[in-house]
Design brief:
- There is one protein chain.
- The chain has 120 residues and is mainly β.
- The protein has one domain: Sandwich (Immunoglobulin-like), CATH 2.60.40.
- 0% of the residues lie in helices and 45% in strands.
- It is globular, with a radius of gyration of 18 Å.
């Protein structure tokens, strides 16, 4: 059996979560291709005794322009990215503002003091 392939384009997306969910299990990724949206979800396994590939694969057909990527992380936060076709996009979850003690929070890699009524 031979698979000669074809000239269609593709995109792979590999997510890096945070904390106890470093593999981003449950994250949904949407790729916008013209008027179409293609959705995939990171799943560890969908049956007994198996393991799914944690890298998501999107077939893009004849599309050659960069595509917009929308990620909905398991905690509900959203993130956007853009990628060229025929590549593997590795996307790491951005840190969001989290309350530690009182009115201090974490933004990016810096600890910042939030004002009263600050928006996150």
């Amino acid at each position: 059996m031979r698979n000669p392939g074809n000239s269609n384009h593709w995109l792979k997306v590999r997510l890096q979560g945070d904390g106890v969910n470093a593999f981003a299990i449950g994250a949904q990724v949407r790729v916008h291709v013209g008027n179409w949206r293609i959705t995939r979800q990171v799943e560890g396994a969908t049956g007994e005794g198996n393991q799914n590939d944690l890298t998501l694969h999107f077939g893009l057909g004849k599309r050659t322009d960069p595509v917009d990527i929308e990620i909905r992380w398991p905690d509900g936060t959203r993130q956007s990215a853009k990628s060229d076709v025929d590549k593997t996009a590795e996307i790491t979850k951005r840190l969001s503002v989290k309350y530690l003690r009182g009115n201090w929070g974490l933004r990016g890699a810096a600890i910042v003091k939030l004002g009263h009524g600050a928006r996150t």
